[in-house]
Design a protein that fits this description.
By secondary structure, the chain is mostly helical. The chain contains nine helices and no strands. The protein folds into two domains: 70 residues, Homeodomain-like (Arc Repressor Mutant, subunit A, Orthogonal Bundle), CATH 1.10.10.60; 146 residues, Tetracycline Repressor, domain 2 (Orthogonal Bundle). The relative contact order is 0.08.
């Protein structure tokens, strides 16, 4: 016959498992909602986003969604924070892979091109164009982009300063390559211009390489 003091321990163990299961289910539901909201923001934009449509896309009840995100603003902010974290994770991986390459300019440019061609940037851009200035969503988007920019620059700067460039020159190079990719992403009208865009990027990289990285003859 089991000892009496075993029962509270077993009960505590079962209770902890139930709490862990509920926490996992809660996290999974939250992820479903955020994935659904991201898809709808990409397809239809911020202005057309409706919380009921997100709930239907996620396969959860409207009440269940409002339990996690009580307003459209709170939902969109959570999407932006999630996208920002995802972009930074990718940037860390790209910068780590680039450490094995001799020329850092091409990897920096590819990283910028990938970001500005991705749905993450399109969502940010749409929000900037859709919301008024100094709103909670607009201010959050601005804060996240600035934070993301600073973190990305910090990842790439050692690739250039390690080759003898000053921190000031290295920062200018990173910002120039990212600004070029941003401008081309916004101005390009379609696939027919991709070759022209790449020619522009290659030209700038060649000029930067010749100016900063190649030893004078």
């Amino acid at each position: 016959m089991p000892k009496a003091d075993n029962f509270p321990r077993k009960a505590y163990g079962v209770s902890r498992k139930v709490r862990n299961l509920r926490s996992e289910q809660k996290d999974a539901t939250r992820e479903q909602i955020l994935e659904a909201a991201t898809r709808l923001l990409t397809e239809h934009g911020y202005a057309a986003l409706r919380v009921a449509a997100v709930a239907a896309e996620a396969g959860v009840s409207l009440g269940g969604q409002l339990h996690h995100f009580p307003s459209k603003e709170s939902l969109v902010i959570a999407v932006l924070e999630r996208l920002s974290a995802r972009v930074l994770d990718l940037a860390v991986q790209e910068a780590a892979r680039a450490s094995k390459e001799d020329d850092p300019l091409a990897p920096i440019s590819r990283s910028a091109e990938r970001f500005y061609a991705a749905p993450e940037f399109l969502i940010y851009l749409d929000i900037f164009l859709s919301v008024r200035r100094h709103t909670l969503v607009g201010d959050t988007a601005t804060r996240l982009l600035l934070s993301q920019r600073a973190a990305t620059e910090a990842l790439w700067l050692p690739h250039l300063t390690g080759r003898g460039l000053s921190a000031e020159d290295a920062l200018l190079i990173v910002r120039s390559l990212w600004a070029l990719s941003r401008g081309l992403a916004i101005s390009s009208a379609g696939d027919q211009r991709k070759s022209d865009d790449q020619a522009s990027i290659d030209f700038v990289i060649k000029a930067l390489r010749r100016t900063y990285l190649e030893s004078p003859a």
